[in-house]
């Protein structure tokens, strides 16, 4: 069995690390490179940086903070946000990123995934998938729809159908964030992660909602996620990555030590 990964997520706004709740109301929590070094030393398997300046403000990606991250951390890291072209992929990889994530631009022009995978390889191409449930009148979930621009615009696309298309076009893995769960600390959208895992063959990183150790073991055991993204529970010192991994080992879930 492949070992499960613990992946801290660091949102970056105007070169500062911040934390959002449901993609809104950012609070500054530190420096992107310093946080990355801290989490890598604590046992993180890789890191994900989300450049919300580029995605929300429609600005070009800033590379200086990415270069600083590359100098400080020794584990793989991905950068997502503001990626619109193949040249953006190339520049991010040159700046030190190991993987590049794309969301809005891929929804607008899916061929970008084909092009990136053919040039850089699928292992470098990450699909950022921000999902919101569409509810029936009885309060149950009918389906999930894809949101773009850091969760602010509804594309109208079905999440499962888009994930399948993205995988066929060349995405090497998917980071699936449930917007309604993000920052709420009530647990991942396990139902969505399980459906995704059943319908695509590439790795799924569960994102949005982790607040307790049990939430992480649940998304691995019941949602079949390949990796769990963590943010609030480590940013605010509630748990260390070592504590998370010890809990998973106690639950007989394979992780890297």
From TrEMBL:
Coiled coil: none annotated. It is found in: Cytoplasm. Its EC number is 4.3.2.10. Keywords: Amino-acid biosynthesis, Cytoplasm, Histidine biosynthesis, Lyase. Its main location: cytoplasm. GO terms for molecular function: lyase activity. Pathway: Amino-acid biosynthesis; L-histidine biosynthesis; L-histidine from 5-phospho-alpha-D-ribose 1-diphosphate: step 5/9. It comes from the Bacteria. The active site is at 11, 130. Gene3D superfamilies: Aldolase class I (3.20.20.70). Heterodimer of HisH and HisF. Belongs to the HisA/HisF family. IGPS catalyzes the conversion of PRFAR and glutamine to IGP, AICAR and glutamate. The HisF subunit catalyzes the cyclization activity that produces IGP and AICAR from PRFAR using the ammonia provided by the HisH subunit. PANTHER family: IMIDAZOLE GLYCEROL PHOSPHATE SYNTHASE HISHF (PTHR21235:SF2), IMIDAZOLE GLYCEROL PHOSPHATE SYNTHASE SUBUNIT HISF/H IGP SYNTHASE SUBUNIT HISF/H (PTHR21235). This is Imidazole glycerol phosphate synthase subunit HisF.
């Amino acid at each position: 069995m492949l070992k499960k990964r613990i992946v801290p997520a660091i949102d970056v706004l105007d070169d500062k690390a911040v934390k959002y709740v449901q993609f809104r109301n950012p609070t500054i929590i530190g420096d992107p490179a310093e946080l990355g070094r801290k989490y890598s030393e604590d046992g993180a398997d890789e890191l994900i940086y989300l450049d919300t300046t580029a995605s929300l403000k429609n600005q070009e990606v800033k590379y200086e903070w990415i270069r600083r991250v590359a100098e400080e951390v020794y584990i793989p890291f991905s950068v997502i946000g503001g990626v619109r072209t193949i040249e953006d992929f190339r520049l991010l990889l040159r700046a030190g990123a190991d993987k590049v994530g794309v969301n809005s631009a891929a929804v607008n022009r899916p061929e970008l995934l084909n092009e990136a995978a053919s040039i850089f390889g699928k292992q470098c191409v990450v699909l950022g998938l921000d999902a919101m449930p569409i509810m029936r009148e009885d309060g149950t979930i009918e389906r999930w729809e894809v949101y773009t621009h850091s969760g602010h615009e509804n594309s109208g696309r079905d999440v499962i159908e888009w994930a399948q298309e993205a995988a066929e076009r060349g995405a090497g893995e998917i980071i699936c964030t449930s917007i309604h769960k993000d920052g709420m600390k009530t647990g991942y959208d396990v139902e969505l992660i399980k459906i995704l895992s059943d319908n695509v063959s590439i790795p799924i990183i569960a994102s949005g909602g982790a607040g307790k150790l049990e939430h992480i073991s649940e998304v691995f055991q019941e949602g079949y996620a390949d990796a769990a993204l963590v943010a609030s529970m480590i940013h605010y010192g509630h748990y260390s990555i070592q504590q998370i991994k010890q809990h998973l080992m106690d639950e007989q879930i394979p992780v890297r030590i």
